[in-house]
Amino acid sequence: MPALQRHPDFPCAALSGIEVDVGRSARGQLALRYRLSGVTDALMLTSGPAVRTDELWRHTCLEAFIQAAPDASYRELNLAPGGAWAAYRFDGYRAGMANAEVDPPQVWASAANDITVAWMLDLPADRPWRIGACAVIEEVGGRLSYWALAHPPGKPDFHHPDGFGLQLPAPEAP
After folding, report:
1. Range 50-67 average pLDDT
2. Alpha carbons 28 and 174: distance in angstroms, whole number
3. For the chain, which end, N or C, has fewer CB atoms within 10 Å of the first or last residue's CB respectively?
4. For the chain, how big is the Rg over CA atoms in Å?
5. Domain extent listing, the chain
6. Mean per-residue pLDDT for 7-24?
7. Backbone conformation region of residue 159, classed left if phi is above 0, alpha if psi is from -120 to 50, else beta
8. Residue 14 and residue 137 in contact, taking contact as beta carbons nearer than 8 Å
9. CATH number for the domain whose boundaries are 3-168
10. Count of CB atoms within 10 A of residue 47's CB?
11. Distance between CA 147 and CA 3 in Å, rounded?
12. 79-119 pLDDT, tens digit each
């Protein structure tokens, strides 16, 4: 399981680490399992209905960015631990944002620190995908930290192409 790295400018007292396991199916499904370690009482988890909701990144939110190579377009997926979710498509780097036409994700949580989410995506299933797995963690009191496979120089930017650090080859046809 690859480990997400905390952005060095944003300390975190809520947990000590996040690992994510990523897989995909030949049908175009993306599965992500997030495992949080060293969780403390400082972790802020929001609750609410499991409905499509904007601006989830303002609180604790598990995220993924997916791009079908060699396209410039990509998808952003957001899941709040309480079940609220969002999915967006972009034509290019932070350009042409619109809601992605995807069904609500399937979510399994064996505990608050072990969450698996599966998304059916509208990306070409027969091409490699580049993945940027990341998370925003909110602490009691409102302080945020930003976790990603890789951080480009400067402020946190999950949309930056340098953050798409995992390569998933196209699965073989059944």
Report:
1. 96
2. 13
3. C
4. 15
5. 3-168
6. 97
7. alpha
8. yes
9. 2.60.40.1190
10. 9
11. 9
12. 998 899 999 999 999 999 999 999 999 999 877 799 999 99
